[in-house]
Design goal:
The protein is an all-beta fold. The chain contains no helices and eleven strands. The protein is elongated, with a radius of gyration of 14 Å.
Length: 119
């Protein structure tokens, strides 16, 4: 199983970016698909999460600005980021809990994509 993330880049404060992540490989079902971020010198934190049923959860710092959405048929998750701030600068990682058909769920990480917001 692989998670392939894309869509990072450089944007000015107030701008928007859209991240996408696609899961591929031997996938029976996917439980959660989430986005984390890690800024230099800081711990990796959860930014936005979504379950297979469509429930979503956001870090307080991004509520009202970021939107996570998921396509269960395509095994993809996107993160629409609006009104970006310099403090949103970080490497963003997609994360998924996946059942490969062997009766257990495993955690997978994408490779990370850099988001840089200039003041």
């Amino acid at each position: 199983v692989q998670l392939q993330a894309s869509g990072g880049g450089l944007v000015q404060a107030g701008g928007s970016l859209r991240l996408a992540c696609a899961a591929s490989g031997s996938i029976f079902s996917i439980n959660s698909m989430d986005w984390y971020r890690q800024a230099p010198g800081k711990q990796r934190i959860l930014v936005a999460a979504t379950t297979s049923g469509g429930s979503t959860n956001y870090a307080d710092s991004v509520k009202g600005r970021f939107t996570i959405s998921r396509d269960n048929a395509k095994n993809t998750v996107t993160l629409q980021m609006n009104s970006l701030k310099p403090e949103d600068t970080a490497v963003y990682y997609c994360n998924a809990i996946i059942n490969t058909g062997r009766g257990a769920f495993y955690e997978y990480w994408g490779q990370g994509t850099q988001v840089t917001v200039s003041a």
